[in-house]
Amino acid sequence: MATGKKAKDVGKKAKGKVKETTGKAVGNESLEAKGKIEQTAADAKQTGRKAKDTLT
Q: Among 2, 42, 34, which residue's Cα sits nearest to residue 18?
C-alpha cells in the first residue's frame, strides 16, 4: 500500500474519532454519527487497498 494513501486513511480515521468523541461529549448525535461514518469509510478504503495489494 502506498505510504501516502495509508497515512491519509489513518488521518481520516483519526479525524472521525475526534468528531465522534466530541459529539458524545457535547451530546450532538449528528456529529457523533458523522464521526463514525468517517471512520467506517477510512476502514473500507484501507481494506480495499490491502486487498488490491494482495492480488497484485
A: 34
Model confidence pLDDT, tens digit, residues 21-50 = 999 999 999 999 999 999 999 999 999 888
b/e code 17-34 from CB counts within 10 Å (16+ = b): eebbeebeeeeeeebbee
User: Could you tell me which of 24, 45, 42, 25 has the C-alpha nearest to residue 33?
Assistant: 24
The residue type of 35 is G
Residue among 8, 15, 3 at smallest CA distance from 45:
8
pTM: 0.82
Per the structure block, which three cell numbers stand in for 16? 472521525
